[in-house]
## 1
Amino acid sequence: MRAEGGLGQLPLQNESPAPRPRAESRLGLAVRAIAYLNDKLLVLSMIALVLGGAILSLGVLLRYFLKIPTDWQDEASVFLLVGATFLSGAYVQSYRGHVAIEAFAHLLPPGVNRVRMFLVDLIAAAFCGFFAWKSWTLFHEALVDHQTTTSTWSPPLAIPYGCMSLGMTLLTVQIALQLATRFTKHERP
Amino acid sequence: MSTATIGMLYGAGTLFVMFLGVPIAFALGSVAVVFMYFFMPASSLDTVTQNVYEEMASITLLSIPLFILKGAAIGKSPAGKDLYSAIHVWVQKIPGGLGIANVFACALFAAMAGSSPATCSAIGTAGIPEMRMRGYSGRFAAGIIAAGGTLGILLPPSITMILYAVASEQSLGRLFLAGIGPATLLVLLFSGYAVYRYKKEYQLARLAYDAGGDKSAYLNDETFTLREKLRILPRVLPFVILLTGVMIALYGGYATPSETAGLGALLAFVLIAIVYKIWRPRDIKPILASTLKDSTMLMFIIGMSLLYSYVMSYLHISQSAAEWVVHFGVSKWVLLAAILVMVVVLGFFLPPVSIILMTAPIILPPLRAAGFDLVWFGVVMTIVMEMGLIHPPVGLNIFVIKNVAPDIPLHEVVWGVVPFVGLMIVAVLLLCWFPGIATGLPSLVMTRN
């Protein structure tokens, strides 16, 4: 199988969410909690996406028909669309929607494949964890130093950095839970 | 450690992590971070997130989710089926008209939706059963839809071209325009093949019938009245107007590409609400969710690919690789052929997004040094990547067709696309001989502007 993606509406590799462990376990609660959070953030991302499109459309109308300058529209849209991207990252991961090359997955013996899948989640979690940590550092600096963009509108950079930090943290937690679920599943078949 | 050794380690590490099955975005990011740790100043690790944010916070790149939204809105509506039906009733008198209708419907739908798989799915759902009902072989029907769907990444607003414009620092407007001539050429080549194939299958059906066999559906005549032809138009004209309006907004200087994306998405929602009554939250939510799934996945890959390229550039890997290619001393056409073969091979495993962003720093400087127009090359590279969507033994569109028409065996689908891969190679060769097919329109329009 090849990696899918890159061109707009693409089928996800796995349309069903990761299996949920037994409801009574702490892991089960954590999985349900992040699923709930993902659903809420998905709705927020949807609103941000629509608002981003609406602001850009409004910009054209304001500029051409009402002759009102719209120097804020690009940055507002960027903030909204970056926010939507990062805040829905964990939701996409919950469906294993971040595409990967699975060319050799079917060729490996089941035991080796299990190790491979474990490593995959471990590497992904480690990277996202690192990225989340550095994002929070960036967010903290932006907040403390009152950093803004360089435009005349100059909105605070803490807004997109905050979305990035929260999104990457949730993504890390999501991958870690998937890893734990996988591990638990094999430990308790 | 020499740059060459670091470069080889970088490439090997990337291949290892990717083939291990780590999601492409995280694979690229993790390799970049590991190499930053070992080969770059410690402070560089503190700027990883800022680098990614600054690369992603480009209003041009962020038009991608909105173009996807526009495509999803149109793709989830019955617009594809109506578009196909409308073209069919108007061109059915031409021999092979049904095949031609499918090619044109794919091209128009692709231009509206901007996605190859979505085009295959939308037009194939209506077109393949119709073609089979009229006697077309499964192989031919599958091939024409799979190939027609690939036009999605060549016609504006192509996401592939948006990324190429960012990676190569070329004008997006020029690139969009440059795709139109070659897309028209492909539509003509595909249509010509549809006529040829129709005549061949028609003759075989006629011979079999004359020899006393069953009467194939090929031999049935079908006519539509003018009233029937006119009745279908109100359902498709608004979408054609949307397509035209978006192009006028972009090239008339009224809107930037990102504003065009926003405007297009908004208008697509207005149209599906008016024409198909798709406006309730329960109708809209799946469209938005599907958009976010695709665009988030894509934007993560883009962000991490740009980080990956930044590290490659900082460590002089891309510059050294480019210099090495230049000093290799091959002719410009051998260089081009080698690069295109590499793109084909990468297309077996990677989506176009990653191919463009990962290879651009290495392949574009030698191509520029060899005197190639990078807008022209962007179009050629896109056609080659289109082949990746259908060329056997893998190719996304093949599997989309298999889902749309499960009764057609996979090997029939695969054999069905082979002639179209050949036609795409012909198109690439024609573009090499007559670069004006791609560069003519942008030169004409942009010079006037």
Note: The two ends of chain B are 51 Å apart (CA to CA).
## 2
Amino acid sequence: MTTATQQATGEVTYLEAISQALDEEMTRDERVFIMGEDVGAYGGAFRITEGFLDKYGEWRILDTPLAESGFVGAAIGAAMMGMRPVVEMQFADFISCAFDQITEVAAKNHYRWGAAVPMVIRAPFGGGVHGGPFHSECPEGWFFHSPGLKLVAPSTPYDAKGLLKAAIRDPNPVIYFEHKFLYRRIKATLPQDDYIVPIGKADVKRSGNDISVITYGAMVHLALEAAEMLSKEGIDLEVVDLRTLVPLDKEALFSSVHKTSKAIVLHEDNKTGGIGAEIAALLAEECFDSLDGPILRIAAPDTPVPFSTPLEEYFLPKTADIVAAARTLAAY
Amino acid sequence: MDLADVTHEIKRGDLLHMYYYLRLTRTLEDRITALYRQGRIVGGCYTSHGMEAIAVGYASALEHDDVIAPFHRDMGAFLIRGITPGEVLAQYLGKRTGPTKGKDGNVHMGDLKRGIIGFVSHLADNLPVATGAALAFKMRGESRIVVAGTGDGGTSRGDFHEAMNFAAVRKLPVVLFCTNNQYAYSTPLRYQMAIADVVERAKAYGMPGEIVDGNDVAAVYVAAKHAIAKARSGGGPTFLEFKTMRMHGHSEHDPAKYVPRELLEEWKKRDPILAAERLLIELGYGDETYFHEVGERAKKEVEAGLEFAEQSPLPDGPEVLEGVFATELNDCHHANHSRSAA
Amino acid sequence: MATDIIMPQLGESIAEGTVVKWLIPLGGAIEKDQSLLEVETEKVDLEVPSPATGVLNEILVKAGETVAVGTLLARIDNTASPEVVHRVGGVVVRPVEPAAPGEEHHSPAVKQLAKEHGVDLTHVKGTGAGGRVSKKDVLGFVSQNAPAGKASALAMERSMGEEVLPFTQMRKTIAERMVKSRQTSAHVSTFFEADYSSVVAFRAGRHLTYLPFVVRAVTKALRDVPIVNSSWGDQGIVVRKDLHIGIATALEDGLLVPVVRHADRKGLTELGKEIGDLAERARSKKLSPDEVQGGTFTITNHGGFGSLFSTPIIHQPQIAILGVGAIQKRAVIINEAIAIRPMGYLSLTFDHRVIDGATADQFMAKVKEYLEQSHWEQIL
């Protein structure tokens, strides 16, 4: 569906890219269907499925009861029976209601008895929107640790569209973390024809020689901003966008750190036990001989996401944090 | 049930088929219990002793391509759908030839080709999944249905309610049941719910419900048959409450001293196999000789299964790493291998 | 809000002080009471603790400069988020203590690079935090001291999947010799094809490889064209009278060329035995030094793994080397008709300083002739 924005500039927003991916996959494969709260008549809380109900009908765009566990469980059953459901969590924060179905049923099914669960759960995550503790969370850490799930987190419209398509076409349960802060704030021109971004492949968004900044989601843009500023001081950052959290593209990570010898892991999720901790440990194990400085982590402090503006600003990692850390690491 | 109704609703061959499976289920689970007591089966050991008529009854009312999402008191349903005693014993013994190749134990078996959705230990998780399977059938306009259930304890969980609600709201082709055996581990019904009959919950979701004598295989079969037909014809879901009694502990290690002896004595008289035999005699379908012969056949089948399981290899350590991710989609359109009447 | 850092008065009579070094880089984060810089006066050398938490955003007096007491040295911006401290790893704000001599700690990357480039780290000046030697310092040192024309940039491009195999003596020797040979002789190659039918027919039922036949053909041809059996001497071309044929033998980790002495005096059987014995002892490292010296011509049987042609490198101080290619049945024209014959290419590399193409071809024509038409039973 070409939006007004696209017609005017040829560019689409991150949100429109997601919408396009859904639309194209629904057309391409009749097994794909969407379910979630308010996705049908309302067009979705963020308007991603606006117009879909009219186009695809109420048996492919299902307005579900307010029961995440129930409808994620139903998605699992439908997926096992040959459909390809795309479940929408209205906010990633509500995914905890379905934690049991996701981690005990979806994640373990194939391992235990060989039944694939080809489904996608879309989870709008991240803060910076004054959403408070239950509309701004980054819950990827909980699922990172659940063998059998794949997790992806695109940072650009190109990656958002390509990764969602790849997720829909994957025979495994994939949780797709879309960053709500990026929805309407970034735009890009996308290829006309069908393309996917493969799951399991990171992307070097900016090549550099001095420090590897490993990150995902909205933080990618802060890292690129910091890189711009630091290039004027002769500090050359390499920004590695993970794109996929599980399975991690270890080769890309190691290759980058072998080159630069210094690493900063950056994410919006709480610091302790966030994905950054695993990446730092991996780098210490596998790249020890290449390291010329300590592995740093920049992340939110270990608190729920606060509501009041000064609190949330304090909470979220900022470009200045990346700049300060990079300067010190470069001088080490 | 009225004898006339029985002959009207159930073919002789089908009833005899059900009787065989009552005996097979009992014999198999007795063997499993024995192996557990001998220390040859490790981990949890849950049987449906005294409750066999429920699984055997509803599973006998299914068509080839229907799907079940059972729980741990449904051994009879696994057997009728085509899981052999050998595979069951291999599963319990953790062998590679069991349906999960050693990845999971006891009744946690699943096989899409035989129309069985493998369940997890978190009771009632299977119910939303079952509604999803039914949703797929409805979306594609297929005439397949799903039967799924849990125990009285399971109906306290949110997933039970979310599934009942969703099934009713979307009028899904699913039959949901509760095997009310009056105890959830040591928790008696009165601490599980404030109502006397679980069936009252159906009304709350706008779904028809029925109480069925869970120890009368004919009654179970007929109730299931009607509910299934209704679902298949687009009439939406039905809730069935099977009244029964848990004759053994929650698992075979549990002496269940919390159950009053009188209750067990009373229900012993209502044993489903004895009830079936009385029925067959009344209908003139069988006699003691026949029952004995069936017993021998069941025993032979179970022993052959045990031999198969014992000869089967255990999985190798490194196999633990296999199968985390799928590389291809399921073939789920043809459940077959349902065994025809003996 | 900014906090001024001034040169302290470290003693009543002291009027000035020297900034030895800043322990926090410009723009770096600092906590109150954390050591900010090192200062030296006539009397004392010490570290100055920071009066505030914030970011060091202005440095007015550089390391090495001496200023009066009270001079403004730097400014700390307290409004910048001190949260940087907790958010980022602790090491960001902990300054690196300069190490005592002999106790330097080197990072894994530095150690690895030093090893790879054979650098003695005590010679490398450290410009990293606390005076440590950083990766940049090592790479800088290497590129400054690298031999002319050698790109140390290659070493900087370290990618995954690289493994360094230390040189064996044999590998070093072969490398040296091969390069030297190419630099010494004017290498030219010429290729002939031989019909091995008579050899094949004669071999049938006998325990003989092809090599003895080739050796015989070569020794006869060398008698016909003796200049091929020579070397480049100081006074002129030294034509050798004796025919000592080296047989290039592949080993697990390199190659050796044991020599069959007076090969022209030996029949096929004896040649076969000796070649076999030399090869076996070459592989089991049981050859004596004089068994690999004194050759006048070398044969290399490169056809073993299927190679058809080759351009072998001359074994100095010889002036030619013959490569024997794989023998394959091919369709050839004989007497205006197509026949199937076992054919093989012979590749001769010769030193054009000593002989010209015509001579080389003349020699090869003879080798071919002898291979194709000998009465083998007479030289068994």
Note: Residues 14-28 of chain A form the longest helix (15 residues).
